[in-house]
Amino acid sequence: MIRVLVADDQALLRGSLRLLVDAEPGLVAVGEAADGAEAVRLTASTCPDVVLMDVRMPGLDGIEATRLICAPPQAPPPQLPPDDGPRPRVLILTMFDLDEYVYGALRAGASGFLLKDTPPAELLAAIRVVAAGEALIAPAVTRRLIAEFARRPGPARRDSAGLAGVTDRERDVLELVARGLTNTEIARRLFVGLSTVKTHVSHLLTKFGARDRAQLVIVAYETGLVTAGIADPGPPSAGVARQLSEGSSG
């Protein structure tokens, strides 16, 4: 059974999400939080597998709550128990695909990012993907996120030498991952097999010490591999469902 905590400052939406989760076989809602501080407290007491996290909430916002919830076990914040088990996964939900806080949420450790108008079936599938230890970002969101934040002053980027240990083919895969293509789309783009793409993604995760695909997007941005002004490598994905069906962590 996948345990889900819902965090959103709108009571009606929280209730609707809880009903949606509870009606799905294999999922159960273990609590509702109206702000980030409550989300952190309830995470400690209910031990959810996935936290559905709104970004814009009063007090402690979704970014800071995500950072606390996703803190490494060896250095947990005081609000969370000092255990060695896996940390809960955070799936960010927002109304805006250009939300100015999205980049911060990914850096804080979020493993998924979907818009609130995502169809219910895709949202439920996304919960399962994230709970399985994979990462998911709606492809259209990824492209717009990179384009938007590449135009803004941001955190210091890693030196481009950080890509020195990455092969040319791995660079190609990393760029396409960061631009929101699924493994199947990358395989078609590069004329290689799906298993080959998964192997390259696995190698990239290891080389950068990245937990999941979402963190590879951050690497691509911070090394300057993906910037605004570079042509989109292809048409948008047909939808999140195709990414869900592949398994996106490798």
Describe this structure in words.
By secondary structure, this protein is an alpha/beta fold. The chain folds into two domains: 2-133, Response regulator (Rossmann fold, 3-Layer(aba) Sandwich); 147-235, 3-Layer(aba) Sandwich (Rossmann fold), CATH 3.40.50.2300. The chain contains eleven helices and six strands. It has a six-stranded parallel sheet, sandwiched between helices. The longest helix is centred in the C-terminal third of the chain and has 15 residues, at 194-208.
Helix/strand structural class? alpha/beta
Can you give the helix content as a percent range? 40-55%
Q: Please indicate the percent range of residues in DSSP E strands (runs of 2 or more).
A: 5-15%
CATH topology of the largest domain: Rossmann fold
CATH class of the largest domain: Alpha Beta
- Please state the oligomeric state of the protein chains shown: single chain
Biggest sheet layout: 6 strands, parallel
- The overall strand count is 6
Give the helix tally.
11
Average of per-residue pLDDT values: 79
First-to-last CA distance: 24 Å
Q: What is the string of helix and strand elements?
A: EHEHEHEHEHEHHHHHH
Gyration radius from CA atoms, angstroms: 17 Å
Q: What is the count of structural domains?
A: 2
Keywords:
single chain; 250 residues; alpha/beta; Rossmann fold; 2 domains; 12% strand; globular; disordered C terminus
Which helices and strands, and how do they pair?
Blueprint: E1 2-7, H1 11-22, E2 27-33, H2 36-46, E3 50-54, H3 62-69, E4 89-94, H4 102-108, E5 112-115, H5 120-131, E6 136-137, H6 139-149, H7 168-178, H8 183-190, H9 194-208, H10 213-222, H11 240-246
Parallel strand pairs: 1-2, 1-3, 3-4, 4-5, 5-6
